Predict the 3D structure of the following.
Amino acid sequence: METLELLRTNLLSPAVLAFVLGMVATLVRSDLKIPEALYTSLSIYLLLAIGLKGGAALASTPLEEVWRPALATLALGVLTPLLAYLVLRRLGRMDVVNAAALAAHYGSVSAVTFAAATSFMQAARQPVEGYLPTLVAILEVPAIVIALLIARRNLKGSSMGEAVREILTGRSILLLVGGSLIGFLSGPEGLKKVSAVFVEPFQGALVLFLLELGMVAAKRLRDLRQAGAFLVGFGLGMPVVHGALGVWLGSLAGMSVGGATVLGTMAASASYIAAPAAVRIALPQANPSYYLTASLGITFPFNLTLGIPLYFALSRLVHGGS
């Protein structure tokens, strides 16, 4: 499938269109609302389903196939927050607190963007490695810790221990790691027993979740004026740099075209669940209008619509056009 055709297919997919519908609903001030309880239930369902499928796939994957991608993912978890912090400090002239807060978000990963990338690969009929959800759990934590350590070197009184505890016990890590462990121990046969709940309905639940995220993202658009032109450019440019780095490292680690694309998308994404919770505790002085608007209002829509097809094109280029 050609890149332009893939782009058209992605833009017209139910997930992307639901996201746009959510944005439109907010911009026209519709009374459409997703109940908070349903939103929470959907996020729990998606994270647990991702973990279960990843753990089941990992159970049947030889260790020699996983260790290099896992190492590449750890490298991304170290490099991306450092790179983002340097750009924000040197080019954006941003203060230490807000630069570290943004670096934590752009070093970590968005599980929903990951799910959207795997859906895109299915639409493109491009196989991906089954252990990819395990890499989501590996990438989520280190970047946040590194960014907070950077801030801690320059600040006194930030609660690093509490922030780390918040990350490790937060629902995103707990569900991803716990789901992966359940999937690993029960194996593919165990997953078959619950596939009617955790496999087949996954795409429909993702569409509903993105409808809500579209409404949330539209609300953050109102903060763009405060965020400024540099932050808008950062929210669009940094994902491309991180995405290219992820695709390159994934390819070096021996991952397929689809697998390197998804890893690149993970590196390009910005967290808006685990990172905000940790930053809120460790860096309460940081401005939420900066890190939430950039991650959810700028980078997430970009990756969902244009970024994923771009990383796929880069992956095919790196793999010699295959």
